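Quick start: read one record
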Amino acid sequence: MSPQTAERLKSQAPIRFLLTFDDGPAAPRTDNPTLSILTTLAHNPLQPGVKALFFVQTRSSDAGETEFGRNILRREADEGHLLGFHSATPHHANHRFLSPEIFEQSLNDGIADIVSIQGSPPKLVRPPFWNYDKRTFAAYQQRGMHILLTDLSANDGKIYGIKGSLRRRSNMLHLLTAVRERIAAGELPAVDGSIPVVVSFHDINSYTADHMAEYLQILMDCARAVQLPTASKAFYDDKAALERAALARSVGDGTQAVHLPGLWNWLWE
């Protein structure tokens, strides 16, 4: 770290990790990854009772559309987690490529599904494949939903192909080092006395579920390694505070330049 960065960080608030999960609920009836993650968030040695933001697929085949899947979503809400919108189509469809009619209907369906579960409409959305344009951005905004992207992303795959990462620690360290420079430059806002750092996972991934407690420790270790102090509670433990932080980090303008994880910037250029 350069002396200039170190000096600038002195005037910045501590960080707080805002955990987000995409694509759930998971479908398996046994050893369900989403349920495993919920248990780890509630009971872990670092900070029991961690609350997270789940971007859910309310009508995914064999998962969100089923009573089993809906019960998982109810458990998320009952345990104080926040539900955001991801999709309400049978499959993980890119919103940009849906017909206007199907896209609009999926938004209405997904919002209604989430209202029926958590009692309030979602204020946050993460588009499938991190992809949106002026039209889809405007449609989200018209329904009171704000896009939340990410600062850190676990690079351990999702369902098909490779599910795992031998670089889970070095990946987080690399990404958090870049975040440190943005914090030093004053680019990230403080909310309730700390700077929210958004972390994304996929709760349908069994590897993620099996390593969730380790991921929490990795985040803490990486914060120390890059000399970013954390808040007294490094993870959010209150849904209202979590939502305020997420809204503060949301994309305010559909035309603004954003940084997407992995190869997605290159793919959607």
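The chain is about 40% helix and 15% strand.
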